[in-house]
Amino acid sequence: MEEYDYPLQPVEVEVHVDRGEMRVLWSDGHQAVYRFETLRWRCPCAECAGEGGAPGKLAFTTALTPQQTEMIDLQVVGRYGFTPVWADGHATGIYTFRALRAMCECPECARGRQGSIVC
Ligand SMILES: [Zn+2]
Ligand SMILES: [Zn+2]
User: Fold this and answer.
1) Ligand nearest to the CA of 119
2) 28-39 residue pLDDT tens
3) Domain coordinates of the chain in residue numbers?
4) What is the pTM of this model?
5) What CATH number labels 10-114?
6) Is 84 within 8 Å of 39 (Cβ atoms)?
């Protein structure tokens, strides 16, 4: 497993099961928002995302089940990432801090991705 030297660290992580979202306060003060469904669609594990140029399961998936998009636990992976545990038992995707920060769905970051501002 590759380690990532990323300057930003999560200071506070909140998982809101009722709202289906996860919030991360980053060490630069940015409050990031992630919807469970978006996270699950972006699962970086070999099974979901594919490996060595081969497409993963998600490439052939058109809809996720409620179990697949319900996060029941969140594990910290070393000093560089998180692994969500999903209600269907899936827990192999490691979301690095770098990847997670790039996925932020707050209005500011969403705007930044469309225009030229980089969050
Ligand atoms: Zn996966
Ligand atoms: Zn953001």
Assistant:
1) 2
2) 999 999 999 999
3) 10-114
4) 0.88
5) 3.30.2020.30
6) yes
